[in-house]
């Protein structure tokens, strides 16, 4: 009768090992350069992601919001029970019955959003009938 062997793989701990050499060969020292910085700090602060249609929607990190679009001032206010953000809209294009905007910048925050800063991309479209906004939507993305 054969004796059955059992294999138990193990992992060797590296914390207890001593580094034997920390010297770089002289002919390689000139080739070593400091590594480039790969991670750069966030340039845009708070990133808004979500959508608002005709004044109602959800935008992260705010949650459920009411939206108020002011075409003359080129602003969009997003508000809920925790506070509000006023966004200045830029890259605004006017056509006979449609207005589009493609970038936003936070100009003011209140409540829990008072410290928010940032700018980003969006697609805001408003359809004008007569002198009034018939329908509008805003999408925020990275």
Q: Tell me the strand percentage band.
A: over 45%
End-to-end Cα distance: 68 Å
Output mean pLDDT. 81
The general outline is elongated
**Major sheet attributes:** 8 strands, antiparallel, barrel
Strand and helix order: HEEEEEEEEE
**Neighbour order of strands in the largest sheet:** 1-2-3-4-5-7-8-9
Specify the number of helices: 1
Question: Which regions are unreliable across 5 or more consecutive residues at pLDDT < 50?
Answer: 35-44
* Number of DSSP strand runs: 9
How would you classify the helix and strand content by structural class? mainly beta
**Rg, alpha carbons:** 28 Å
List keywords for this structure.
single chain, 142 residues, mainly beta, 8-stranded antiparallel β-barrel, elongated
Summarize the SSE layout with pairings.
Blueprint (H helix, E strand, L loop, with lengths): L25 H4 L19 E5 L2 E5 L2 E8 L4 E6 L2 E8 L2 E2 L3 E14 L7 E11 L2 E10 L1
Antiparallel strand pairs: 1-2, 1-9, 2-3, 3-4, 4-5, 5-7, 6-7, 7-8, 8-9
Detailed description of the structure:
This protein is an all-beta fold and 142 residues long. It has a domain at 49-141. It has one helix spanning 26-29, and strands spanning 49-53, 56-60, 63-70, 75-80, 83-90, 93-94, 98-111, 119-129, 132-141. Strands 1-2-3-4-5-7-8-9 form an eight-stranded antiparallel barrel. The protein starts with 25 loop residues before the first helix and ends with a strand.
């Amino acid at each position: 009768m054969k004796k059955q062997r059992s294999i138990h793989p193990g992992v060797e701990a590296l914390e207890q090992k001593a580094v034997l050499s920390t010297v770089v060969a002289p002919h390689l020292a000139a080739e070593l350069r400091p590594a480039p910085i790969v991670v750069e700090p966030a340039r845009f602060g708070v990133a808004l992601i979500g959508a608002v249609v005709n004044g109602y929607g959800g935008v992260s990190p705010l949650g459920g919001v009411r939206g108020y679009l002011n075409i003359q001032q080129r602003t969009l206010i997003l508000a809920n029970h925790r506070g509000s953000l006023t966004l200045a809209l830029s890259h605004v294009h006017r056509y006979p019955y449609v207005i589009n905007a493609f970038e936003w910048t936070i100009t003011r925050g209140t409540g829990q959003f008072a410290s928010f800063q940032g700018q980003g991309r969006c697609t805001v479209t408003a359809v004008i009938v007569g002198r009034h906004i018939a329908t509008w939507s805003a999408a925020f993305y990275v």
